[in-house]
Amino acid sequence: MIDPGRGISPGLTAVHGITRADLDGAPSFGAVLGRLLDLCTGSVVVAHNLPFVDGFLTAELARLGVRVPVQPGVCTLAAAPRTVRLPNYRLVTVARAFGVADQPAQPALAGARTIARLVTALFRTHGFTFAAQPSFPTLPRFAGAAQLRARSVDPAAEPGWMAGVVERVPAGPLGGDPAVAQAYLDLLAGAVEDHHVSPEEAWRWRLWRPRPGWPNRTSG
């Protein structure tokens, strides 16, 4: 868990489940930057929608006045459509299409483990390779003495039939930021899976304006 700053909203709690109380007392991004860069040293960074993730990291580094060389990376969201045609390319949808089982853990950790298995399948089973041999830059070193604050692990629930409904919803041509469409489908998936639309979820849906090819919104 990372505290973005005193009083700053955690954002789409309905999607990621993180509240402001969860962030209070967690270390700042700068306090854990050393550990993060140590993990990245000599490694290829992998993410589902890598440009979206990179935007967050770039913004945080800019606030600290830190410049980090570009790392070699793989975006599973960009790679998957080259291999398989799916209604949408949410991480869960893509993972299931490649036979990667759901990982029982809190969302961020489960997502990281799922992406690791997915990129392994793309390279080992489906013949993906790097367009160019990865070149690993020298990264700056920072002290990483902050005590990490792990997120609590929720009990794994057995996914039912309804949990897979959103995997069959076509996202269509996005036209805008793909991350917004993925967030919309994640919010829809949560509501469908637990058979309940909370007041906050209903409010979040009203923030989205449908575009051609998007799934229709619902108020109930």
Structure description:
Helix 6 crosses helix 7 (107-124). This protein has helices at 13-16, 20-23, 29-40, 50-64, 76-79, 91-97, 107-124, 178-193, 199-207, and strands spanning 45-47, 73-75. Strands 1-2 form a two-stranded parallel sheet. The protein has 220 residues and is mostly helical. The model is unreliable at 207-220 (pLDDT under 50). It has 3 domains: 1-41, no CATH class; 44-133, no CATH class; 161-207, no CATH class.
Summarize this entry quickly.
This protein has 220 residues and is mostly helical. It is built from 9 helices and 2 strands; from the N terminus they run αααβαβααααα.
Question: What is the fold's blueprint, element by element?
Answer:
Elements: H1 13-16, H2 20-23, H3 29-40, E1 45-47, H4 50-64, E2 73-75, H5 76-79, H6 91-97, H7 107-124, H8 178-193, H9 199-207
Parallel strand pairs: 1-2
> Which strands sit side by side, in order, in the main sheet?
1-2
How many domains would you count in the coordinates? 3
Low-confidence stretches: 207-220
Kindly state the percentage of residues in helix.
40-55%
Can you tell me the overall shape?
Answer: globular
Strand runs, count: 2
Query: SS-based structural class?
Result: mainly alpha
Terminal residue distance:
32 Å
Mean pLDDT, to the nearest integer, reads 76
- How many H/I helical runs? 9
Oligomer: single chain
SSE string: HHHEHEHHHHH
Strand content: under 5%
Please summarize the sheet with the most strands: 2 strands, parallel
Radius of gyration: 18 Å
